[in-house]
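In response to reviewer comment 3 from the previous cycle, which asked for concrete evidence that the modeling workflow produces usable outputs, we include below a single protein chain processed end to end. The sequence was submitted unchanged, and the resulting structure tokens are shown without manual editing.
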Amino acid sequence: MSHTAHIPSHRKPRRNAPKTALRAGVAGGVLSTIAVAGAAGPAQAEPVTQTIEMPTITAGLSTAVAASAQATQQVAQDLQTQAQEDAAAATAAKTAKKAKAEAVRKAEAKKKAEAAAKAKAEAAERASRTAARTTLSATSGSTAVASASSSSSSSSATGSAASVIAFAQAQVGDAYVSGGTGPNSWDCSGLVQAAFRSVGVDLPRVSQAQSTAGTQVSLSNLQPGDILYWGGAGSAYHVGIYVGGGQFVGAQNSSTGVVQRPLSYDPPSGAVRVL
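The workflow returned the following structure tokens.
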């Protein structure tokens, strides 16, 4: 028998160590090691190790990264769209401004052209009237004027005719104003109307009507106080008063005013007798 047979053993009784699991998770698939120790056999506990691969957590990160990238791309697209819209608006504004300026220029050019055309038409009308006046004077007045001058050079006005002539001659030197009816400025028919009104005869206001206000008489048979007209009877454009001696008084134009002139100065087309 061994001398140690009755000596209690100092060896610790066998025991089963509980299995302990240690876990640690790290994003990105970091591995964690869990050590498990336990007693195995009568001699001593032998450590047992086991390696466990923990699941990675990249799925959520991938989704977040994808969402962030999509959001960034959307912002970039929105900025690009806004930039394009701003550029388009600026271009449209510039085009509109240019179009407006062009429209204004064309309107001004049209206005100037219309004014020039109107002025040209007025000049042509004046020239036409002058030509017609000259033609009428040359064709219908020359012979009659010569005859009237010789036949009435020694005649003298009496009664109402003398008063009409005196009124007309008193206005010689006054200004000619279109539409003028006195007392210091006249147009041709205004002077004739006022002269006859001084003896109680009320004549129409305009030349056309005055040229048919009485009895038509020949230019070779004129009497003092007859109304002379230039143009056609009923369409006359000028009137005056025959004062005898081959002379007439009339408000001619803005350059001469009211004058007394020989019939040869501006031969009339016809005459009408009112008195």
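Residues 16-43, 134-155 have pLDDT under 50 and may be disordered. We consider this sufficient to address the reviewer's concern, and the full set will be provided in the supplementary archive.
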